[in-house]
Amino acid sequence: MINIVIADDHELIREGVKKIVRSHPDMRIVGEAADLAGTLGLVRLHGPDVVVLDINLPDYDGLEGLSELHRHFPDQRVVLLSMYGEEKYAISALRAGAMGYVTKSMAADELVRAIRQIVNGETYIGPRLAELMARQMLEVGEARQQRRLTKRETEIVSLIGAGLQVKQVAAELAISVSSVNTYRNRIFRKLGVQTNAALIRYALKSGYVS
Q: CA 208 to CA 146: how far, in whole Å?
């Protein structure tokens, strides 16, 4: 049996979660609270498998309630229930120790799926959150690539990205054509591109060219 505590200051939301849970015989609500103090008392009393925690409780905004709960019960598994889309808090919530992030607009089966995965020791990542995390990883990867470029290489990426030919780049920077080609080959290796066209696309996408 999966024992669950609900923490939400809106009775309507608590009733909705209870209705969802009642339709699954292997789950049960062992307590519900409208504030964090009540939640802490229920966790201490019941030791639930999962706490379904509203992101905004009285006197605790954003991720403060999650942090306070984990200060008292560091190992408590929590799925954060939020009125905000994943873009605002989801990744920060996982970093802060939540094992799942479910928006109140999601279908009921999303919450059930999150609870089951969390009980099994897994982090629940919904489709939208997975997309956000993938995008963030790509952005971090691109930022690392950019940091690896030297100042001169960055200048050459910008000039080639603006459409200048190798001879024009050499004239602009007052260096030889062979030096430009040497820098360009290094840039190709660092960025994983093989042609000027690919480099131009990269420069446009990454903001080297306005």
A: 10
Beta strand segments in the chain, E? 2-7, 27-33, 50-54, 78-82, 100-103
Structure tokens given for 11: 């009775």
> Model's pTM, two decimal places?
0.63
CA distances from 23 to 7, 16, 104 (A): 19, 11, 18
Name the helix (H) or strand (E) containing 201.
Answer: helix 196-205
Secondary structure (DSSP) of 11-69: HHHHHHHHHHHHT-TTEEEEEEESSHHHHHHHHHHH--SEEEEES-BTTB-TTHHHHHH
Write down the pLDDT at residue 129: 63
Residues of the chain scoring pLDDT < 70: 84-88, 107, 127-147, 209-210
Task: Report the alpha-carbon distance of residue 18 to residue 29 in Å, rounded.
Answer: 7
Distance (Å, whole) CA 59 – CA 70: 16
Domains of the chain, first to last: 2-126 (3.40.50.2300), 149-205 (1.10.10.10)
* 103 Cβ contact list (under 8 Å, min separation 6): 81, 82, 83, 84, 85, 86
